[in-house]
Design a protein that fits this description.
Layout lengths: L1 E8 L6 H10 L17 E6 L2 E7 L10 H15 L2 E7 L6 H13 L3 E6 L20 E4 L8 H11 L12 E7 L5 H10 L4 E6 L6 E7 L2 E7 L8 H5 L3 H12 L2 E7 L6 H12 L3 E7 L10 H12 L8 E3 L8 H15 L5 H14 L4 E2 L2 E2 L2 E8 L4 E6 L7 H14 L8 E6 L3
Parallel strand pairs: 1-3, 1-4, 4-5, 5-6, 7-10, 7-11, 11-12, 12-13, 17-18
Antiparallel strand pairs: 2-3, 8-9, 9-10, 14-15, 16-17
Length: 436
């Protein structure tokens, strides 16, 4: 179940990032990161007791030319704006400082739940120190040690208790797609090109997340919503200086979409931040189209497009299934090609296949390429069925999931992609032991 957002705030050197890493590390049911995804310490998608939530480390946002305490206050304000629950990290050995008091005063005005994590309590002799922190006017104070993992489970239990259940807004019979990418890659121009080619825009309504606009429109008889994350409407140093803030908006747009358009600037080299942003689309298992914008401004020959595609494939290994479209939003070129891919990817993302055909494919795959011996035995495939769409999710019953080598699972995924039209969509394979 998807819950809300948790932000970590506090003075420098109290262990905010260590607490963040501990909480993020407790993703017991999350699969390993896909190969090639570059992680950003600012944000993590976490899971605890089958409940998922987003985690923000405000300390990961660096503000330029801002006085020390003003920076801390700005980070606290970011937490207030973005989070449903706030964790204030303090130094459990030092006790309350003026900085702690200043931050908690800001947090109290927000009326949002605040939990104090008194860090560095890794010895029973420091346990009595936590009582001082109730003077901050906070009901929930938890002694923790980020270094040793002490108290982290109790802290997570309280976070889950306080988090609201989030219902993500969706539109009926509508293809919802988000446009994400670095600043200045042309997200706004692409949105305008998409909407500007239409004469039937139903309405512009405020999105359910901050700094995003949902634009509803119809094209060729199909209903669409484009979620644009381009514009920052708030003023102030934190929004002007903290470029990473754009990542938070992108994540929320990704959550609410079925398809994500990852926009690159075709006039520039691919950067790590491009990979980070694209990584969120992969992490949330969304349909993905990679859009190379500003292609009109590139000096090119007959090999340029092929060479750029090869560069994308080498950088975005984790999105090998994503189609690539070259456009010029400014000159409204090849927008129709983009829509062809949006329709196609949406069909694939929602595709269902029959159980009989699926099992024929699995049988053929196992005959053509026998599984290797792994962990003492060879995996045996008995039968499979599709249990979900968005993305297509298949349960395969086997003799023992521990005998599945990752390379053989990748082979099976490729065979399914060959057999069924699944370009643009991730697919999930769930292995279950067949009861004897």
């Amino acid at each position: 179940m998807r819950r809300g957002t948790v932000a970590i705030v506090g003075r420098p050197n109290v262990g905010k990032s260590s607490i963040f890493n501990r909480l993020a590390g407790e993703k017991l049911a999350i699969t390993d990161d896909a190969s090639g995804i570059t992680r950003d310490r600012l944000y993590s998608n976490c899971e605890w007791l089958d409940q998922e939530f987003s985690l923000i480390d405000t300390g990961g946002i660096e503000l330029k030319d801002v006085p020390f305490m003003e920076e801390i206050k700005a980070q606290a304000q970011l937490a207030i704006d973005e989070a449903d629950v706030i964790v204030l990290v303090t130094d459990g050995r030092v006790g309350i400082t003026n900085g702690d008091q200043d931050v908690v005063n800001i947090l109290h005005r927000s009326k949002k739940p605040v939990i104090v994590a008194a860090n560095k309590i890794d010895d029973v002799k420091f346990m009595d120190n936590i009582y001082e922190f109730y003077n901050l006017g906070v009901e929930d104070v938890y002694p923790v040690s980020a270094l040793h993992g002490v108290g982290i489970g109790d802290l997570l239990d309280k976070i889950i208790e306080l988090l609201p259940e989030k219902k993500i807004k969706h539109y009926d019979d509508t293809v919802e797609f988000a446009i994400i990418g670095q600043p200045n890659v042309g997200k706004s121009s692409l949105t305008n090109a998409i909407l500007g080619t239409e004469r039937v825009i139903v309405s512009d309504v405020a999105g359910t997340t901050r700094d995003a606009i949902d634009s509803k429109f119809t094209r060729d008889g199909k209903n669409y919503v484009v979620i644009d994350t381009a514009g920052i409407r708030k003023q102030g140093k934190i929004y002007e200086n903290a470029e990473k803030y754009s990542v938070l908006r992108a994540i929320k747009a990704v959550e609410r979409s079925s398809i994500v358009l990852v926009v690159l600037d075709g006039t520039k080299d691919i950067e790590e931040q491009d990979k980070r942003i694209a990584g969120y689309a992969a992490e949330y298992n969304k349909g993905v189209i990679i859009v190379v914008n500003k292609w009109d401004a590139v000096e090119k020959d007959e090999k340029s497009m092929k060479e750029y595609m090869e560069k994308i494939r080498s950088h975005f290994v984790f999105l090998s299934y994503a189609p690539i479209v070259f456009v010029s939003a400014l000159k409204n070129q090849r927008i129709h090609t983009l829509f062809e891919q949006i329709v196609k990817v949406h069909e694939n993302y929602t595709r269902r296949v029959s159980t009989s055909v699926l099992n024929d494919i699995l049988l053929d795959a196992s005959i053509m390429n026998q599984a290797p011996i792994f962990n003492g035995d060879r995996i045996k495939l008995y039968y499979g069925s599709q249990v979900e769409v968005c993305p297509p999710t298949f349960v395969i019953f086997v003799n023992d999931p521990s005998h599945m080598h990752f390379s053989y699972q990748r082979y099976l995924e490729n065979r399914l992609r060959e057999a069924f039209e699944l370009s643009g969509t991730p697919l999930k394979l769930i292995l279950r032991k067949k009861d004897e």
